[in-house]
Design brief:
Blueprint (H helix, E strand, L loop, with lengths): L1 H20 L1 H4 L6 H19 L10 H13 L3 H32 L1 H14 L8 H8 L3 H25 L3 H9 L4 H38 L5 H10 L3 H29 L6
Helix pairs in contact: 4-12, 5-6, 5-8, 5-10, 5-11, 7-8, 8-10, 10-11, 10-12, 11-12
Length: 275
């Protein structure tokens, strides 16, 4: 009896030791760390600019970027460019994400579709989407359709692979349990396979945000009168670095906003992951 008690206590000690050693992986960072880190980076940037070690023509100070950005906002110059870019990126992202998720589900649940479609997707994925942008514009013209299309194509491929991976890696025990209780194909996909694939799908959405911003800027630089990419190109040609940086900051803010929206949707779709 005594020996059994000593063994149980030893196991408890082992569990506490493991928990203590893993605590750094699970301990959340304080909420003030992120804003403090960003503020510290901006202070260092401002200090370096004020010392003159880097010319303002090469790297403007944050205060100069804020000043010019406010002038562009107050003068109304920034709003048409921002609106044009938002319409393109939202349409392209939504179309590409929906198409990629749908194709990924089909490839994941159908062996026939996997055998036929996966090699095609694998052969097309390595092609840089910026490289086919002139070809898409040749086919569809230089209007809005070609810009939305190239963004949608760039978003679709990561979503296909992430969705396919999530569907194929669905827990077989849950699948067998659902089938045993009489779940049909639709219920199996909707209630078992898709919920298990949501974390991988949202990881693909986060990757696709950066891709969509990159393709947006490339498309707007090639053929667009309005948009953040066109704005950056215009002021680059005029050697107005501060206003170029305003466009870069706007793109960074867009990426941050989109990521926050995805985090909100992720908490709504998979609350058990954040419980």
């Amino acid at each position: 009896m005594t020996g059994t008690k000593v063994e149980i206590l030893s196991m408890g000690e082992v569990k506490r030791t493991i928990r203590n050693r893993m605590s750094f992986l699970e301990r959340p960072a304080p909420g003030w760390v992120t804003p403090l880190g960003i503020l510290g980076l901006l202070v260092i940037w401002q200090a370096v600019s004020m010392t003159g070690l880097v010319s303002s023509g090469a790297l403007p100070a944050p205060s100069e970027i804020v000043r010019d950005g406010w002038e562009m906002v107050r003068g109304g110059e920034l709003w048409p460019e921002l609106y044009a870019s938002l319409v393109r990126i939202v349409l392209g992202f939504v179309i590409g994400a929906c198409a990629g998720i749908l194709i990924g589900i089909v490839l994941g649940i159908s062996r026939l579709a996997e055998a036929v479609g996966l090699p095609v997707v694998n052969s097309l994925y390595p092609i840089p989407k910026i490289a086919i942008l002139p070809l898409i514009m040749l086919w569809l013209g230089i209007g809005e359709i070609s810009k939305v299309t190239v963004i949608a194509v760039g978003v679709a491929f990561p979503m296909i692979f992430n969705t396919y991976s999530g569907v194929r890696n669905a827990d077989p025990l849950w699948v067998k349990a659902a089938v045993s209780f009489g779940a049909g194909r639709g219920d199996l996909i909707r209630k078992v396979i898709l919920p298990g694939a949501w974390p991988t799908i949202f990881a693909g959405l986060r990757i696709s945000i950066g891709t969509s911003l990159l393709l947006l800027v490339a498309a707007e630089m090639i053929a667009a009168e309005h948009g953040i990419g066109a704005l950056i190109l215009k002021y680059s040609n005029l050697m107005m670095t501060t206003r170029v940086m305003v466009g870069v900051v706007v793109l960074s803010i867009l990426g941050l906003v989109f990521n926050r929206l995805l985090s909100f949707l992720e908490r709504k779709c998979i609350p058990w992951k954040h419980a």
